[in-house]
What does this fold into?
Amino acid sequence: MCFCTHFDVEGNAQATSGIITGAWIDMVGKYKVITLCGSTRFKDAFLQTQKRLTLDGNIVISVGLFGHSGDDEVWAPGTKEMLDDMHKRKIDMADEIFVINVGGYIGSSTRSEIEYAKATGKGIRFLEENGME
It folds into this structure.
């Protein structure tokens, strides 16, 4: 049994309950969920990797903004911290993370995400072989 809150077109919360069907469980279990991590300066690598992993049959969760590639909204007070926290929640939803480590670069935010993934038992893969151990 699951308890959910849905919103109607006017934005009013509608509490519902129901049973998760086997078909839904089968659909979710069929695809690996992968969260992309890495410096947003590598926007092109993020987009290429997202495309490749999606075509390989994965559900891919990525960043919402590329602060180091022109999305200046990231630098508004409190926004970077919020986005970093949101990205940890994206890791929570994933089976594994895929680190975009172009040229072996792993910054402090990405390092934190890798440590979080390790601590929560997530698989970790790297774009380039010279990733963290």
